Every structure is written in structure tokens, then in C-alpha cells.
Amino acid sequence: MRIFVTGGAGFIGLAVVRRLVQRGDRVMAVVRDPDRATQLADLGVEMRAGDLSRTAAIVDAMRGTDAAIHIAGMYRVGIAAAMRPAMLDANVGVTHRVLDAFATAGLDRLVYVSTVNVAGNTKGRIIDERYRRDLSEGFLNYYDETKYLAHRAVRERVDSGAPIVIVMPGVTYGPGDHSGTGQQIRGAHDGSLGYIALADVGISAVYVEDVAAGIVAALDRGRVGESYILGGENTRLRDAMQVAARIGGRSLPRLELPTALIRLGSHAPAALARAAGLPDDLGEVLRAGLGVTYWASSAKASTELGYRPRDLGTGLRAMFDEG
Hints:
By secondary structure, the protein is an alpha/beta fold. It has a domain at 2-174 and 205-234 and 295-316: NAD(P)-binding Rossmann-like Domain (Rossmann fold), CATH 3.40.50. It has helices at residues 11-22, 38-42, 55-62, 84-105, 142-159, 180-190, 208-221, 237-247, 259-265, 270-275, 282-289, 299-305, 312-321, and strands at 2-6, 26-31, 46-49, 67-70, 109-113, 164-169, 171-173, 202-207, 227-230, 233-236. It has a seven-stranded parallel sheet, sandwiched between helices. Strands 7-8-10 form a three-stranded mixed sheet. The protein is globular and about 55 Å long.
């Protein structure tokens, strides 16, 4: 097939593109600067310069393809208020434009890559695709809010009959992961982690190659209109760091920042936080991580898509073996 992919140069996107190319599909990707997307070029991906800011340009890029996978977005927690418009457009605006372009181009299928985060705080429960969050409780952070809005927009198109399949990855780790969670896990493995903070957050940890396999399986045999959670091992971040440290022959640091101290730091000005290497809005990080769980079951994807995520230890060994 010829597949149109957004976010193909990103962490998850590159793993998806590699899998598509390896099985013989032709991939079309829109990238900001084709000269810098060397990994996509090495894979033989057809690239067009663009930033997904115009629906008409997305339609032009989609023409001649059979299906689309929409992965592009912005993931950061603790951003400054000034960055919110950019995140809103990256996660919600772009999704609306991709949906409009998909309808105009008349492709056979769209796989939309959402996130388990749209369920919000699962409060210690392991939820499935039927779960609906209580909106009266508000959102944990702005990423959470924008991804929920985008997910809702896609569900509205599904309800109107659009041939869309939704996948919802858990916290994804692997080589090239530059997220805060990924950096903490790598720091635990390398012995460079100076202290532990907010390690009780509950995650459904999944290796990036397993997420990519699930996305491609959804493209091939996901039921139109359905959502599929692509999670992994439901654990606490502390436990994941402990596994990483053990693989690296290390011990976790003894220093753990008290919650009271973190709360005090959350009132620091954004400029001071940046100077200290902290997120601009530490209060948002607290809301997203203090006692929060993002636990979910992938049973449906296992049954219908043949999704088989590896266990945390195996995944982390693969991550560190690959660099």
C-alpha cells in the first residue's frame, strides 16, 4: 500500500515508518525540513516539505495514497502559558485539518494515534476502551486537555461514519525517547539520576516497537469505528526505574524529594524554574504525577489485533542494547 504518515520523523512515527517500509509499503511523509529528515530519507520515504498548517496542502500530499496514519503532535508537561496556543494547534488544530483532508482525499482508512491519557487519572483502576472520564474533575495538564479535545473530534467523525480506527498507546519508551519519563529511566540505568521525585505515578509502560506493531495491525485489521489501547506493563515509575537500575548494575539514588519541597518549588517563577532545569509550570507536573495512575488493559488489542507487548524487563533491555 501507499501510506500517508504525519509525525513520521518522531519517536513513535519513525518506528511505524520503518515497519511499513520493511514489509514493502510505500510511505509519504510531510516534514518541516526534508534535508534534516535523514533517517526517513535513508528508508526511501517520499517526503514533502510542510508543517500541516494548511488543509489544502495535506490533501495534495494525501492524493495517490491508500490510507493514512496520524501520529503528529506535541507532548510536554509543565509548559509555560505562552506555549499553550502552539500545543493547541499541534494537537487539536492539526487533527481537524488532517480529518478534513482525509475526507476530501477519499482514502480508505485513517488510523489516529491518541493516548491512554485521554482517560485521565484512573485512580488505581486498570481501565479499558469503555471507560469515560469524569469531566467535572477537570484536566491534569494542558497536554491532557488538548489530546482529549482531539480524541473527541475524531470520535465525532467516527460517529458520522468516517472509516477511522483509533489507537491509544500507553507511556512509550525506547531508544531516542527524550521525554521526562524516558530520561529518568535512562538516568536510573546509567547511574546519572541524582534524585527521585514523583516516582509513584502509575504508567502502562510499552516499548516503542510494540506500539508501532500495534499501529500497523490496526491499519491492517482494526475494526472501523473501534478504539484499541496499546499499553504494556502497568507499574509505578519507581518500579520501572528500579528495573532499569538493576539492568545497568546500579542502585537508585537514596535522595527522594519530599512532596512539600516540590510544592514549594512549584511557586517559583518560570524563568527561575528554567534556570534550574525544571519545567516552566511545576504545578502542572505535580497535578499530572502526584498519586496519579494511567493504567489500562490491552486485552481488546490482544484479541483483535494480535497485539503482544513485551514485559518491562525485556523492553528495557532492548532499549539499552540499542543505545
